Amino acid sequence: MAAGVIGLMVVAFVLVANKPLPKDEKLATILLAVMGFMALSDLPAYVLVRTTLRTKLRDTVRQDTQPDPLMSVLRAYSTMTIIGAAMAEGLGLFGAVICLVTGHMLAVAGPIVTLAVLFALFPSVQKVRNLAIDVLGVDQASRLIP
């Protein structure tokens, strides 16, 4: 995901730097406003999705419908990570396209934010452990994830 965003941004940057486009300030203003709205609305949307998935996971684990609760935690964690990364990637790619279309370099903020979010979402054992503790409780999570 990060490679795609970086690659498109490099292409946009090289094309705009070598052959400056006539800037359409009105279009750039509209598209940058839309990108800003995307950035601001993605966070609450992701929090809502993440909260919903956690609640569903807690209910599934409490009902004992899964023979292996750790697999349920891992599935939910990967789903949350993929959704968050996809939302961030959309912002980055949109920023690169704005840069290509309008030549406005402020759109580079989209890919930069995307890379920061992708870095923050990068999976780790500690993040999985924290989700397991939240869903299963400290005792069960400690037995499943040393």
Explained architecture:
The protein is mainly alpha-helical and 146 residues long. The protein has one domain. 83% of the residues lie in helices and 0% in strands. The chain is built from six helices and no strands. Helix 1 runs parallel beside helix 3 and helix 1 packs antiparallel against helix 4. The longest helix has 38 residues. The chain is elongated and about 60 Å long. The two termini are 30 Å apart. The mean pLDDT is 87.
Shape: elongated
Counting helices, strands and paired strands, the structural category is: mainly alpha
Task: Say how many strands there are.
Answer: 0
| Largest pleated sheet | none
Reading the helices and strands in chain order gives HHHHHH
Number of helices: 6
Based on CA atoms alone, the radius of gyration comes out at: 20 Å
Query: What does the average pLDDT come to?
Result: 87
What share of the residues does DSSP label as strand, in percent?
under 5%
Number of domains: 1
Helical content band = over 70%
Unreliable segments of 5+ consecutive residues:
none
**How far apart, in Å, are the first and last alpha carbons?**
30 Å
Walk me through the topology.
Blueprint: H1 2-18, H2 25-62, H3 69-102, H4 109-121, H5 125-136, H6 138-144
Question: Which descriptors would you attach to this protein?
Answer:
single chain, mainly alpha
Short description:
By secondary structure, the protein is an all-alpha fold. It contains six helices and no strands. Helix content is 83%, strand content 0%.
